[in-house]
Design a protein that fits this description.
Layout lengths: L4 H4 L19 H4 L12 H8 L6 H15 L12 H6 L4 H22 L4 H16 L2 H15 L3 H8 L6 H21 L12 H12 L2 H8 L10 H4 L11 H46 L4 H24 L1 H23 L5 H14 L1 H22 L14 H20 L1 H24 L5 H13 L10 H13 L9 E8 L21 H10 L4 H8 L2 E9 L14 E3 L19 H22 L3 E7 L3 H13 L20 H18 L8 H8 L2 H15 L4 E3 L2 H13 L7 E3 L7 H15 L20 H19 L3 H5 L7
Parallel strand pairs: 1-2, 1-4, 2-3, 4-5, 5-6
Helix pairs in contact: 6-7, 6-11, 6-14, 7-10, 8-9, 8-10, 8-15, 10-11, 10-15, 11-14, 11-15, 12-14, 14-15, 16-17, 19-20, 20-21, 21-22, 22-32, 25-29, 26-27, 26-28, 26-30, 26-31, 29-30, 30-31
């Protein structure tokens, strides 16, 4: 099973997170693959899921079914459905049911063309296949193409996996896709017009339904019976969670899938043919599993998708044989039995020698073309298998350890030549030393491009390489952490940070409104200041405008919830524009109710994702900076951290945007503490602690939710995020709670004066450590910055570029020590 990135992650950010179910926006599933455990070690996350929300219940099963439906079709699902990997795996039991529904959809197109419009069956089958491609998005066909490229072009297991995870389509993939489509079209066409009769259906329509349903039975069987390969490549993060799938796809669920498959086959073709088809699928799953073990050491998404496609053609062939060639098969079987009986009788006849009996049987075989073709086919296949087993290299899984005698001799010759060259001249000796000095870099490059290496392994390899450079170990401090992260993410020893983008999200907060307007007046500045800041950004004269220009950073500002001003002002659209998901008037006062509805939270997450995705693609960004504008958002951030961590308000609140030079306003701090305590009493912290989306709805802000969505999008694309001060750090903490893999991409720019940032940073560090991800280093700057608008991060972008330069250009210590001093 395989899917493009856009198809795979379709979970609408408007999903509800009510009850005990954790709603996971885009990118969450991928995070489950980062640092996964072994196949035989059950992760704590899965144990928690199985003992909690994943327990057998109508609600859980409905979520499982619709999660699968979301996964394998392009059709929408109810908004309370998420793409939680636990539900996806539990929902594998509904793969055959989903396949039957897809088959019903596709067969409707076949019947309308063949029965109503009286078009030729081949045209009808083409139309039905187009309908199949549309509803599934060529989900399994992509896996067939990738598998064909890998298996056809790979020489070792590693090569096969590397080719399969390459998104480009090769010659084998094109050829197999063409064969698959042509075979499928012809088989459906030769079955003719549909005849619908319970238990004795005929024609193309019923065959479409059965093939779509039963072919998908191989998926739960393979996932349950085989280990899942940690595949790497651009899609590895999503499918990596399957490593633990055997504990979610239980035998009872596999049996249920078999029963539903049989039910579909029985209602279509009756008891005997239905049982035959189900047994045929189980045999196919077994053979495919054995072949997968031989080639890959287990199964993977593309391989399962390819197996489903092959099984469809396999089933259509069996149905065609049963429907159209039954009499001929019986005739051939009878002829074969006659030949066997003739041979046995001749052998028992004392007047006939064994050689004469063999001659008689052989003559009968040759005269019977059908039986002779079968014997010839089996002979050719057997000879090919024996030849491949005994000639040339050993079986594929062992090839990586084999070195031929010629290769050994060549290596020995090269070694002797190298030794001789060493003794010939000083110049050649220096060249050899230089080659040896470059070895660490070559080893690092190999580790970075190795699809089997996860982020932590790549990060550790880079740190070791940095230790070998011309500097005391660790002497560049956080810059070394930044260089290691960016290099591990970009998978190159020449990382880049030249194309940096900054997205600033702006919104107003109900808690910042004047008390006469139903707010709590939490800030030293009136709410109208938010709009004025954006006007300054739109004219290119605000703080972020100046710093982005001088540091060559592309700037974009998005209004996701500003309150309307006294005078109507149209954004230019060049720098500032309003999101289509904007919350009109901003959020509500969270001391009196929820700041946002679940739908608003989801829309803000989606706004952040869309804006980030579009800006990254437009500029080709290598680093992303997020900023915020919104009077009162320090109060909101403190409330979010209090709700999610259970910390008391006194340990979180600072002055925020202050009217004093030192940034201290005790009256404002006291008021914030009172406001947050009031909010916590109103919302019951125990019901939202550790539940990021519920916390955003209860006490969050629109711009903070949008930043969370943007961070998730950047993390999903392996793009480093340079984190600004307190508000953005709060958004990062929330993103990490939703998707722990976000910890990989974080570069903290500035230490805020707000106390709550310390709590957020500690929480992020704990999340990273618990998920086997290197904890991000402490903020680089401590300059008493508290302006917002991403100004701290914009000021620190030069440090990011410096870290890339260190990684790319700093010499190895051995290079420096080997320099020859020139005479004055």
């Amino acid at each position: 099973m395989t899917k493009s990135k856009d198809q795979t992650v379709k979970a609408n950010a408007t999903n509800s997170d009510s009850g005990t179910t954790t709603i996971l926006p885009e990118g969450t599933v991928e995070s489950r693959g980062i640092g996964t455990l072994s196949h035989d070690e059950v992760s704590q996350e899965i144990q928690t899921f199985l003992n909690g929300e994943g327990k057998l219940s109508l609600d859980a099963e409905m979520r499982g079914f619709f999660t699968v439906w979301m996964f394998i079709t392009r059709l929408p699902v109810p908004t309370w459905v998420d793409l939680h990997p636990g539900y996806l795996m539990r929902g594998m039991t509904y793969f055959p049911i989903s396949g039957a529904l897809i088959g019903i959809f596709v067969s409707a197109f076949y019947d309308i063309c063949s029965l109503t419009l009286s078009l030729p069956c081949i045209i009808s089958s083409i139309v039905s296949e187009v309908a199949s491609f549309w509803i599934t998005g060529c989900f399994h066909e992509d896996g067939l193409a990738d598998s064909a490229d890998g298996i056809g072009g790979g020489w070792t297991t590693e090569q096969i996996l590397r080719i399969m995870t390459d998104t480009r389509l090769g010659t084998f993939g094109c050829a197999y896709l063409a064969l698959y489509i042509i075979a499928k079209l012809e088989l459906i066409a030769i079955l003719g017009n549909s005849v619908w009769c319970m238990g004795s259906c005929e024609g193309g329509g019923p065959a479409i339904i059965v093939s779509h349903s039963l072919a998908r039975l191989v998926a739960p069987i393979l996932i349950k019976t085989k280990d899942y390969v940690d595949e790497g490549g651009p899609k590895y993060q999503f499918y990596n969670f399957f490593l633990q799938a055997k504990y979610l796809v239980t035998w009872s669920r596999v049996f249920f899938a078999i029963l539903t498959s049989f039910a579909v086959a029985y209602m279509t073709y009756g008891l005997q043919r239905g049982m035959l088809l189900v047994v045929a699928v189980i045999i196919m799953a077994y053979v495919s599993g054995q072949y997968a073990d031989y080639l890959l050491g287990g199964v993977m998404g593309d391989y399962i998708g390819g197996t489903i496609c092959v099984t469809e053609v396999y089933l259509l062939s069996i149905i065609a044989l049963m429907s159209l060639c039954q009499e001929h098969i019986l005739l051939v079987s009878s002829q074969f039995l006659d030949i066997c009986n003739t041979f046995i009788e001749a052998t028992n006849d004392t007047a006939t020698t064994t050689s004469q009996a063999v001659t008689m049987a052989s003559k009968l075989l040759i005269e019977n073309e059908s039986i002779f073709a079968v014997v010839k086919f089996l002979t050719v296949i057997t000879f090919t298998a024996v030849y491949r087993t005994n000639v040339g290299y050993p079986p594929l899984p062992l090839r990586k350890t084999v070195t031929s005698k010629g290769e050994t001799d060549q290596k020995q010759t090269s070694l002797n030549e190298s030794t001789a060259a060493t003794s010939k001249s000083k110049n050649e000796n220096n060249k050899e030393e230089k080659d040896n000095e470059e070895q660490p870099s070559n080893e690092l490059e190999a580790a970075l491009i190795d699809p089997q290496q996860n982020f932590t392994q790549r990060y550790d390899a880079v740190r070791l390489y940095l230790d070998s450079l011309a500097k005391p170990v660790g002497s560049l401090g956080s810059m070394e952490d930044w260089a290691s992260r960016i290099t591990a993410l970009q998978r190159t020893t020449k990382p880049k940070a030249d194309n940096a983008v900054c997205l600033i999200f702006a919104a107003d907060h109900g808690v910042a409104k004047d008390e006469s307007d139903g707010g709590a007046n939490c800030s030293a500045y009136p709410q109208a200041v938010s709009r004025k800041v954006l006007e300054g950004l739109d004219h290119g004269i605000a703080g972020a405008s100046v710093l982005s220009k001088c540091n060559d950073v592309s700037l974009r500002v998005i209004d996701v919830g500003l309150a309307d001003g006294a005078c109507h002002y149209e954004w230019s659209g060049n720098v500032v524009h309003s999101s289509r998901y904007k919350i009109r008037g901003g959020t509500k006062n969270f001391c009196k109710g929820s700041a946002m509805t679940e739908e608003q939270v989801g829309n803000c997450l989606l706004a952040g994702r869309e804006e980030t995705r579009g800006f990254i693609d437009e500029v080709g960004a290598s680093v992303v900076i997020f900023g915020e504008v919104g009077i009162g958002n320090t109060t909101t951030s403190s409330a979010l951290i209090a709700a999610l961590t259970g910390m008391d308000a006194e340990s979180l609140c600072g002055s925020g945007a202050s009217t004093t030079r030192d940034g201290v306003n005790r009256d404002i701090v006291s008021k914030k503490i009172s406001i947050i305590k009031n909010a916590m009493q109103h919302h019951d912290p125990s019901s939202i602690k550790g539940k990021p989306l519920q916390a955003l709805g209860a006490v969050g802000g629109a711009e903070i939710a949008a930043i969370v969505g943007g961070i998730l999008e950047a993390s999903e694309r392996d793009i480093p995020v340079l984190v600004d001060g307190f508000i953005v750090t709060t958004a990062v903490m929330i993103a990490c709670q939703i998707d722990p893999s976000v910890c990989r991409v974080l570069l903290f720019a500035t230490q805020s004066t707000e106390k709550g940032q310390i709590v957020a940073l500690q929480t992020i560090s704990e999340i990273a450590t618990s998920n086997n991800i290197p904890a991000p280093s402490k903020p680089a700057l401590s300059m008493n910055l508290r302006m917002g608008e991403a100004t701290g991060a914009l000021a620190a972008i030069s440090l990011v570029r410096s870290a890339c330069a260190v990684m790319s250009d700093l010499a190895a210590l051995t290079d420096v020590l080997g320099l020859e001093m020139k005479s004055c």
